Amino acid sequence: MLDFQVRDGVAWLTLRRPAVLNALNEELANAFRCRIEELESRSDVRVVVTRGEGRAFCAGSDLHELAPLSAAEAAKYELRFAKIFSSLDRLPQPTIAVLHGHVLGGGLGLAMYHDFRIASATASLGMPEVELGWIPPWSVGRLAEIVGFSTARWLLMTCSITGADAATLGLVNEAVSENQLPARVEQLAKRLAAMPAEGLTQTKMMLNRMSPLRQFEWDEAASEAFRECYSKPEAQKCIADFVARKNKH
Question: In this structure, how many other beta carbons lie within 10 angstroms of the beta carbon of residue 227?
Fold first, then answer.
């Protein structure tokens, strides 16, 4: 579910549900939480990198797990993801998300809770929740913080974009070709790992404190808006149609 390795001061977390494009479920989220708790106290780890196995970084929440839940249960389920992934802010180490293939919905949300995002130029990034009838249940504040309100509105309501376009908008820090992605991430991770740890940690924590859109209240507000949307017939039909299509394959 989540491979964990430490090499030369860099912790590598690899999402391992490739058959479902690394869709987020409770088991994967709980494994991630355990690793974050461990990394908080690991002085031998200087940088944390998250990546996805197979054809995608992460295609979002696992709708098969979400489908049987009531609106209130679904909102609570998603809010747990927000609590787990927002705890990346507590890590003293800088964090990097490595984005390729599909980076959608909660997958893009997970990426935005990292300090840095390096993408393949051909990756597909987006938050398609509005098309399904609901608001993203978390990470809306992060999106607005990273790209600004006007661009966040555009991305949430209209489109998905490539990694190259995401770099132009500032949604990712860099976009490189798919075959250059591993080497570029390794280079950045090693560079950060070689810097004095205290300066990096204090800079990260100061910037986090200065950002009001990182407050958990915005994830709670998004969760409540999601609950209201998810109970509507349009949203329930989208969920049912998705499950029916998947069950045919």
Answer: 21
Location of structure tokens 């661009």: 151
Number of H helices, E strands in the chain: 12, 9
pLDDT tier for residue 165 given thresholds of 50, 70 and 90: very high
pLDDT of residue 173: 98
In 3-state terms, what secondary structure has residue 68? coil
Q: What is the pTM of this model?
A: 0.96
**Nearest of 221, 227, 248, 235 to residue 63 by alpha carbon:** 235
What are the structural domains of the chain?
Answer: 2-180 (3.90.226.10)
- Position of tokens 């130029």? 121
Q: Indicate whether 249 pLDDT > 70.
A: no
127 closest CA partner among 102, 150, 148, 146: 102
Predicted confidence band of residue 244 (pLDDT cuts 50, 70, 90): confident
What is the length of the chain?
249
Rounded to 5 degrees, φ, ψ at 42 are -95, 100
CA 184 to chain centre: 20
